[in-house]
Amino acid sequence: MSHAAVSIIMPIYNAADFLKESLGSALQQTLKEIEIICVNDGSKDQSLEIIKQYAAYDGRIKIIDKENSGYGHSMNIGLQIATGEYIGILEPDDFADANMYEFLFQTAQKQNADVVKSNYYEYRQKKKEDTFFEVLKGQEYNVVTSAETDEYLVFMRPCIWSAIYRRDFLVQNHIQFNETPGASYQDTAFSFKVWMCAQRVVFVKEGFLHYRIDNENSSVNSSDKIFSICDEFNSIQSFLNSNKLKKDKFSKILQVLKFDSYMWNLERISDDYKNYFTDQIALEFLKAENEKILCRDYFDEIRWEQIQNILASYKERRGGAAENYNYTLLKQRVYDLENSHSYKVGHALMILPAAIKRTVITFRNGRNQ
Questions:
Q1: How many CB atoms are located within 10 Å of the residue 52 CB?
Q2: Residue 118: how many CA atoms within 13 Å on its side-chain side?
Q3: 189: Cβ contacts below 8 Å, ≥ 6 apart
Q4: Residue 335 confidence class, pLDDT cut points 50, 70, 90
Q5: Which of 137, 146, 182, 196 has the highest count of CB atoms within 10 angstroms of its CB?
Q6: Is residue 41 within 8 Å of residue 70, measured between CB atoms?
C-alpha cells in the first residue's frame, strides 16, 4: 500500500481474550485504504500468534514485536512508522463499527480538520450491554472549533480512541505520548497537547467505538503507579513552557483539570497511599500558587474550598507535628519530578521554588532532631 487514508494503531499487551473481535472490526472497515499497525508490547499470552494469523491473510496489517516498554512507547513507535494521512487508535479490548473510519475520514476531508472526534458506546461484556455515551454533549456538532476560541475544550475526557488526528499536525507540533511505564494515564497529556495545538477541530454526534468498561473500577495498589498521573501533568506543563503564548493562555486552566484528575485518582488509589498522594497535591499546588497560576476565577466554590483545605492542612503540618510525618516518599517524588525526562526537556520555570524545597528540608530536619 503506497498511501493509507488512516493508520490505525493498536497497542497490544496480553489482549488475547478480546483481540480477535477488536482486530476483526478493524479489518471489516468500509474504508479500505487503511493500515493497521499492531504493536505487540511483549505480550505473554497468545496475542502475537493471533496477530500473525490475521496478518497472513491481510497485507494491511503491520506487526511490531518488541519487549515490554509500556503504552506510551508502543504508541510512539506506531506513530513513527505510520504513513496514513490521519491516525486512529484502537485499543485491543474495544471494537469499532464498520463505518467508523470512513465517516471520520470523510468528515476530516470535508472540513480540512486537524481532529475529528465522535461520541462512543460503553460496552459491558458480562451483561452484553451497549450504551451510547454522549461524551461531547454540549459541544456544537459539525462545525470547526478550537481551544483558541473555547478554552474549556481541554476539560473533555481524553477518550483518544474515538477520534482521528491529522498525522502532519501531530508531527509538526511534536505531539507524542509520555513514555512512562505500564498503561497509566498516558492519554491525559496527549489529549491536552492536541487541544492546545489543534486549529481545526470538528465534533460529530454519532458514536462508533465500543469501549469495554467491565474493569474500569479496578483500584491502583502499586506505589509505582499512584503518581503516574503527576508525570502526565508535568509533561503537559513542560510542553506549555516551550511556548509562552500557550503557557500564558492555558497554565491557569490546566490547574483545574489537574485538580479534578488528582482528586479522581485520590479516590481510586488504595488507602495505604492516600496520605502520600494528598501531600503531592499540596506540593504541586503550592508550586502553582507561587508561580501565580493558581487562579480563583477558574475554580467553582466547592473545588476552591477543597484545594484551600488541602493547602492549609499541609502548611499546618509544616509548622508542627513534624515528628509524626513520613517524608520518604514525598522527598523521593520531589527528586523524581526534578529528574524526570519531561521535566528536563521543559523550561527552567519547571524548577520547584526554593521556598517549597526548604519546606521539605525543614520537615526532614525537624524529624531528625
A1: 14
A2: 26
A3: 177, 178, 232, 233, 235, 236, 239
A4: low
A5: 196
A6: yes
**pTM, to two decimals:** 0.82
Query: Which domains occur in the chain, in start order?
Result: 6-212 (3.90.550.10), 228-368 (no CATH)
pLDDT of residue 295: 94
Angle between helices 301-319 and 274-290 (to 10 degrees): 100
List all residues 6 or more positions away from 133 whose beta carbon is below 8 Å from its beta carbon: 119, 120, 121, 122, 207, 211
pLDDT of residue 326: 46
Decide: helix, strand or coil at residue 154. helix
On the question of pLDDT at 9 being above 90, the answer is yes
Phi, psi of 172 (to 5 degrees): -65, -30
| pLDDT score at 60 | 97
Per-residue pLDDT reduced to its tens digit, 143-164: 999 999 988 888 888 899 999 9
6 beta partners = 34, 86
DSSP string for 340-364:
SHHHHHS-GGGSPPHHHHHHHHHHH
Closest CA to 153 of 133, 139, 170: 139
Pull the grid cell for residue 335. Answer: 527528586
Average pLDDT, the chain: 84
Grid coordinates standing for 102? 470512513
Cβ burial 212-250 (10 Å sphere, 16+ → b, else e): bbeeeeeebeeeebbbbbbbbbbbbbbbbbeeeebbebb
Structure confidence at residue 151 (pLDDT)? 84
Residue 29 and residue 60 in contact, taking contact as beta carbons nearer than 8 Å: no
199-227: pLDDT as tens digits? 999 999 999 999 998 744 334 444 556 78
pLDDT at 346 over 50: no
What is the amino acid identity at position 231? Answer: D
Provide the residue type at 208 as one letter: F
